[in-house]
Amino acid sequence: MVWKRMSFIVVLLVLFAVCFYWMNQSYDPLARYPYADDADREILLEYLDQEDINYLITQQIKPEEIMPFIAVEGFDIANTRWYSTALQAQEDDVAYIVNFINEYRSRMTYSTLEDILTHYSYSDLIRYFETSDDYDEQSELVTRPDEFTLVLNGHKTVFSYEPADLTLLEHLPVVSTQSESKGFYLRAEAATALQQLMEDATEINGELGGGLTIERAYTSFESQVALYEQAVSEHGEQASWFEDMPGESEYQLGYTVSFALNDSWEEQVEIAEDGSLDYSACEEELSNLQRQQISWLRENAYRYGFVIRFEEGKEAQTQKAWQPFTLRYVGVENARTMHEQDSCMEEMNFASS
């Protein structure tokens, strides 16, 4: 009787082992993954372990998201959607993209990845991540540098961003430039508005632009380096009242333009220890025509979508000295609101305007 029971148990164990073996052989790790065809399944099983497959299924990652990258050295399944979004936003070698995301993912957020790669190249981003403390160690990269009401304060930087629709300012009075200069540029909408402003400013004295002469418009990151360093050499610790660090100048956005002013203007601005600024000496040097131009711009610039970017009396908000001939394009509606409220850009909530 005992031997019969023992024999029965052995038979059961053998049957269990056989069944377990065949079940294990026929188990499909991708049974809960309905997206792949036979070719994709073969590749997935070749490169992914069980933990990776579980992640693939849980996150419902599609073959088109993972297949371009799965065989690349350094591939991390947790970064799959980062790789895919990066490739869609800005095409490049997939191995390069994998290395880029693996190295710098912690410096970005997934929600802003597409915006960042729409406006900055991989090489520029790497340069920023590696050298961002050259001028401002607290700088924060702006993800949407194309927003025309963007205010570059609080350590915001657009690094090497260049607007896509820069338009040459033609047939307008400009200061003489070096022979290698390619002229002055603004973004298309601002350039059109400036053209109309200067045509109408003719009423000041009968000349195109009313005697106003364009001295500065779009300024690249590289050009801003020289301007900032010159300001530091001239003004020392007070340089920020007159010039911005590279990447933090609104001239780089393509919406800011300045007309020529007296060369001695910045030198004659008196800055007290408490941060107050005195323009008495500057104003004494203004000609009657310049006074008329300042008055005309204050009364009319908003009609064309421009505001005086750094106005007298707003230094505490802008952290800049008064620049009567520096205009910023913000659109007609915003400019009208700012004119009526006597507001500067720092006082505006453009998201709700």
UniProtKB/TrEMBL annotation:
Protein name as it appears in the record: M15 family metallopeptidase
**One protein family per Pfam:** VanY
Q: Where are the transmembrane segments?
A: 6-23
> Where would I find the D-alanyl-D-alanine carboxypeptidase-like core domain in this sequence?
185-331
For this UniProt record, the keywords arranged alphabetically read as follows: Membrane, Transmembrane, Transmembrane helix
InterPro entries found in the cross-reference section: DD-CPase-like (IPR052179), VanY-like_core_dom (IPR003709), VanY/YodJ_core_dom (IPR058193), Zn_M74/Hedgehog-like (IPR009045)
Which SUPFAM superfamilies does the entry mention?
Hedgehog/DD-peptidase
